[in-house]
Amino acid sequence: MKQPEQATNNEQQKNQAEEPKKKQPVVFSVGPITGKTGVEGLEFDFNYGARIKVPEGNWRVKIIDRDAAITLYDAKANNVIVTSIKKYYVNFRIEVYKDDKLFLEHDLDLKGKKVLIKYPVGTLGDIIAWFPYARVFKARHGCELYCAMATELAELFRESYPEINFIGPDERPEEVYASYYMGIFFPCNDRHHQPVDFRIVGLQKNIPYILGLEPVEVRTEIAPTDTKRIIKEPYVCIAAQSTTQAKYWNNPTGWLKTIQYLKEKGYRVLCIDKELCHGSGSRWNTIPYGAEDFTGVKPLAERVNLLYHADFFIGLSSGLSWLAWAVGKPVVMISGFTLPLNEFYTPYRVINYHVCNGCWSDSSIEFEHSDFAWCPRHKNTDQQYECTRFITDKQVKTAIDQLMADHNLKPKPVEEDRSYHVVADAETNKAMLETAGTKENE
Description:
This protein folds into three domains: 35-107, Immunoglobulin-like; 118-211, no CATH class; 235-427, Glycogen Phosphorylase B (Rossmann fold, 3-Layer(aba) Sandwich). It contains twelve helices and 20 strands. It has helices at residues 3-18, 125-130, 132-141, 151-158, 198-201, 206-211, 254-265, 300-308, 319-327, 386-389, 393-406, 426-441, and strands spanning 35-36, 43-47, 51-54, 59-65, 70-77, 80-83, 92-98, 101-107, 114-118, 144-148, 165-167, 178-181, 235-238, 268-271, 277-280, 283-286, 292-293, 313-315, 331-334, 349-350. The strands form four sheets. Strands 1, 2, 3, 6, 9, 10, 11 and 12 form an eight-stranded mixed sheet that branches. A six-stranded parallel sheet has the order 17-14-13-18-19-20, with helices on both faces. Strands 5-4-7-8 form a four-stranded antiparallel sheet, with no helix packed on it. A hairpin with a 6-residue loop joins strand 1 (35-36) and strand 2. Helix 7 runs parallel beside helix 11. It is elongated. The N and C termini lie far apart (82 Å).
């Protein structure tokens, strides 16, 4: 008699096992509370939200959003730490009562205080997109601002942002009054770290919402470390690699015909991707045929110096497009899986609205970082990656023509034929010649 029930239970267990685990919001460790009050055991700060520690006794803690004029928390407390749920910027007021009498009140005031803005590591375009709001935040509040990030990225920004203190990604200034954590947070409905859905407002503008600023585009400023031009001929930089297949320009002849077109215009075409070949599983991508190979693990400052003298840049919704934008170069951006609101504005944005598009910007879909072949609507069908497969070379050429007309670019034709995978590194060239000579002697 119990067999049907047992079968049902087994089926439920099977279904539960097949269901993907729900993503949990990230939690940061920020150390002890820094603000002392003169009363032993009574402390507060605004590191990772409002934090109030009370000793034993008949205490009550209130946390108020001054801008919204609303009480967020009001409860008794005894030998505990009370923290706000919201970790992004809120114009907090805290009130602490003892025996139902107001004992301590404090309004958030960042002026002259040490404030930390912490950035994640392991990403390029995101940090470049988000960084300019640090300057806006400092100017708004008059604080002593520290930005924690990867050293190489800090060096890119240091010259253009001398008013900001740069520290390592795991460093914290002593007695920091408040700290804020930058990112696009998953799961996307995480409202502890971000007040809005980044899929709707865009990659860059998620940050002014986190920092309580106006959500308007601000261009990052990155200056070259060396303005000496090392390539005499006019050239264009491109980047064709990315972190997921959906970001690629998946038209099989798109890059080939575009590079041919640029050469006919008189340009050298330099591919400045990090990887010569990149992918995962059964999907691997090499740099486009006809482009000169400037790939490799090279200092970002070297990329900046190269971009500085390029006439323009062609790329995807990825880090090197943001880098070119920050250097001040016109950018032709090719992307179908994002809507234009996700990136910086460029009049040379290329997208085909006649096919499936914008899955990254769809608030009903959450990106899967572990799936390089991610295509949420049409995976394993004939429509997979149609968002960029149907972006034609003619559409990109039209954007190039418009860019060249707008900027009055008239390069002289390059007479020398530069074949596929011309190596930019002189030492590598030498090594290749020596290897070839050895093989001939054999």
